[in-house]
Amino acid sequence: MPMRLSRPHRPALAAAGALLGGLLVAVPITAVASASEPDWSACLEGTTDREAVFDRAAETSGVPADVLLAVSYMESRWDAHGEAPSTSGGYGPMHLTDLPALAKDTEAHPDPLGKGDGSNQARTTRQREESVRLGEVETLRTANDITGIPVADLREDAVANICGGAAVLADYQEAAGGAESLADWTAAVGRYSGAADEATALKFARQVFATLSAGESRTTNDGHRVTLAAKPVTASEEAIGRLDLAEAATAGAGTVECPAVLGCESLPAPYEQTGDTVGDYGNHDLGSRPEEGSVDYIVIHDTETSYDGTVRLVQDPTYLGWHYTLRSVDGHVAHHIPGKDVGWHAGNWYVNSHSIGLEHEGYAADGAWYTEAMYQTSATLVRYLAASYEVPLDRAHIIGHDQVQGVAPANVAGMHWDPGPYWDWSHYFDLLRSPIKPDRHSRSEIWTVNPDFDTNTGNVMTGCTEAGVPCPSDRGTNFVNVYAEPSTDAPLLPDTVVGGSAKVSNWGPRLAAGQKVVVNDRTRPTWWGVWFGGKQGWIQNPRDVLLPSDGKVVTPKAGTTAKIYGTAYPTEASDYPAGVTPRTIAPLQYTIPAGQKYVLADARIPTDYYKANNFNCATVDGVPDCIVISGETTYYQIWFNHRIAYVKADDVTVTDG
Question: What confidence tens digit (pLDDT) does each residue in 380-410 have?
């Protein structure tokens, strides 16, 4: 249909930036649109090939195609999502925001796990009406105003969405005074992020231009191959300054533990007494890590609600506490709890006392809006934290919430499964600068799972939208299924506790990217046998997804089975000071049968229990609080099923893989 401008609009002339002799210079290019009103029907007509659509949108709007591609990559990784909005109310490859569509009732953590130490401290769960972020621009309505393209098409049709996003960027750049080089588009890019503060807008612009400089290529979730050629260019801080945005909010110098480049905001989680006794408080514990106790894990969560709902909850003293929340649309970071203190986020007190928790805005059953902006920001933050606390950058220590075992048998089934099958672990570890890759060439039993996320679309799952309904078959996933027999007609290998259903939430029969496994049968060309969760399992086409790996393995001592534990607490009553009740060390429902082997993940696990039961670490009846109680029992961390697990060193033998 013919399209017209509903208000005057003049696209800016575009120019390209190039490096010559190490200096950034402006290289003029031919204007790609006239000064007259753009014909948006020309943008809509033609092939739906994603890369070609970006070229048409650039020609129509005057926005350089490279800028469009880089912005879209940060917002959606070029994916289309049909009618599904992001957690920020955004749609399509250009993430056009339609904020009225965002409001809904939801729970940030529908099944909160609490402190995970067996205490009876009350944790409240409440339904909250999620409001949209005040002050964020509704770019979808702006695109409709400029182009005349119907709102429904801008939401649901990828071609219309890209055209609309180009119109908004062109409009922003015109308001900023035009452009003579690629770097001049910094202001429009920063404004497009929707950030309310200068630091976040500049961070987003830097990410966009870093992507443009490095180049990218991937296959989208609907099968389009898109490539952005590298073109070195640097974002202009001066251009961001012209936007007249607010300074990033902080609570004072030195209170935000974050790389300066991220411009993190301080939104402290309250440490408050909530009742009449010293045991009634929230929503985290004081600590002195790493001087007393160590940080050994960084736990990746998703929020299951909007960013606003999440940060409201973490500021509630009667709720739970985690260290950071990351926003999807622009990767903005809010810092809540100092790293020295212990958050209540993982549902396993041992893991809590040894970890830092990061909540990422998104939904595990959808995963579509784990944006590149959030991936990159998260990776920058995790690199900083890992260096600060000496956490290894591997999948045994940078873990999903879904990898955390219950502290006791009764807790195993109820543990969470986020960030779910749609979190791109392989890409994330590339961003962490610690890629998942082969690390040996000699023969070994140890292999690392690493399916190609974009093309790993053959895993059948149900329940992404409603119970029993198949999930989209064209979505990339981060795991391979483990079967009970070497055939796709066989049932999925049932986990001892949660079974082997294909529900999106069922982690039981899945090996995710970066996890390691012992292969015990390679006699079939397309199926390899693996030991998994104490059982014999089978993986299809392992040569496509398994990488040869170095390491050591554990096996039960001759003629015995080995018990599996969810913590590494001290085991002897004599380990605990007078007045402190020794922890009950209950083995989980799993065992390692005689002869089976599992990959050793960490041989230096701290054996300790962090006693933190009283507000302000009060001493009660002469018993001190906020103390690390160490023991003599040696534990090993192993790869067992989908989750990390612990075994006692006295129960196993360690050998080369």
Answer: 999 999 999 999 999 999 999 999 999 999 9
